[in-house]
Specification:
The complex is a heterodimer of chains A (286) and B (72). Chain A is mainly α. Helices cover 65% and strands 7% of the residues of chain A. In chain B, 88% of the residues lie in helices and 0% in strands. The radius of gyration of chain B is 17 Å and the shape is elongated. Classes of the chains: A mainly alpha (286), B mainly alpha (72).
């Protein structure tokens, strides 16, 4: 780790979340503070809406309802007739990631810090708050939730046997030795690409803001703040949409679809699925 | 001489070429489709965002490799 050389540099870049305080064996990092802020904002909004909701929404209620309606409409269009059971998960992911991304745009985040002395005696300034999505732990945990969710929905829709057959047996059976490893890798790469995409975007955004703040004068970083606001929204949308697509793909089944365990005719959700299936498992399709 | 920063710069610089071209093609086709048929914006939007995200993931991989070279 080239900490010594970078200690004097203008921009503070740390790829992992930094420690703030130690409570017994438990170390509080600054991304935990960011996560906590995002959670509190969401809980407060939910609490306020559940108390004060009216048929004719007030301004604040409309603001809170907008992302919910927006996401629910998309899920309804994509998720087929089972969309109601998917909505809570997708909506939670979307709102949490959105709030966690936008925490990074608050004034003082990444700039106000505390002095921290590590075991070797080096002292560095650790920012007090770090947006949760700029920590790989947070995004990987979310991606794991999505991963477990789409496997669970696949099993629920197609049965354990149907799911295993779809995952491990290719459509022309003689292709199985070639297709199965590819398929397994593509399933696992979803986990990596989901988490890395969100982490990379938000982390790069934070670095971009810090660099711009160090290089330019007062007004210019504001442009990039606006840009990061858009990116934060798009990344939250992408994470939620990809989870939704994976779930609908798992529910609809991948291949030929003559499994007797299917408890529903598939078609609409399958067609609504995306080019990812063609890109990764194209040979599975008839 | 320490070439680590150069390696990281090359990783993200070269890695951004492909996704850059891909994003340009994707967005231009989406805009074309939107121009031909503005009513289809709702149907285009979700596949568009997903396609953009999948393309952009390649660039993010390059970024991650660059960060790994720099910090690990």
């Amino acid at each position: 780790m080239p900490e010594e050389e970078h200690a004097e540099s203008l921009v503070h870049v740390a790829i992992k979340a930094e420690e703030l305080v130690e409570i017994g064996p438990f170390t509080v990092t600054n991304s935990m503070v960011g996560t906590l802020i995002a959670t509190i904002v969401l809980l407060a909004a939910a609490w306020w809406v559940s108390r004060n909701a009216q048929t004719v929404p007030s301004r604040l209620q409309s603001v809170i309802e907008f992302p919910v309606e927006f996401m629910a409409n998309i899920v309804q269009g994509q998720g087929g007739h089972r969309w109601r059971s998917i909505v809570p998960l997708i909506l939670t992911i979307f709102l949490l990631v959105l709030t966690a991304n936008w925490v990074g745009l608050l004034p003082g985040v990444g700039t106000i810090g505390v002095n921290w002395t590590d075991a070797e005696g080096h002292t560095a300034v650790h920012p007090l708050i770090r947006p949760a999505s700029a920590d790989l732990n947070f995004t990987l945990a979310l991606a794991m939730v999505a991963f477990v969710a789409f496997i669970a929905w696949g099993i629920k829709a197609n049965g354990v046997r149907g799911y295993l057959k779809e995952t491990f047996v290719a459509n022309p059976a003689y292709m199985t030795p070639i297709m199965t490893p590819i398929h397994v890798v593509s399933e696992l790469s979803r986990l990596i690409s989901l988490s890395m995409r969100l982490f990379g975007n938000v982390f790069a955004g934070e670095v971009l803001l810090a660099v711009m703040l160090a290089l330019t004068f007062v007004v210019v970083p504001a442009i990039f703040l606006g840009l990061e606001m858009v990116f934060g929204f798009v990344q939250a949308l992408v994470f939620a949409l990809l989870t939704l697509t994976y779930i609908t793909l798992a529910m609809a089944g991948h291949g030929g679809g003559h499994d007797e365990e299917h408890d529903e005719p598939h078609g609409d959700a399958d067609d609504a699925g995306l080019s990812e299936q063609y890109a990764t498992a194209g040979a599975n399709r008839p | 001489m320490d070439l680590t920063p150069l390696a990281a710069g090359l990783a993200i610089g070269l890695g951004a070429i492909g996704p850059g071209i891909g994003l340009g093609m994707g967005v231009s086709k989406a805009m074309e489709a939107l121009g031909r048929n503005p009513e289809a914006s709702g149907a285009i939007f979700v596949p568009y965002v997903l396609g953009i995200a999948l393309t952009e993931a390649i660039g993010i991989y390059a970024l991650v490799i660059g960060l790994l070279i720099l910090f690990v």
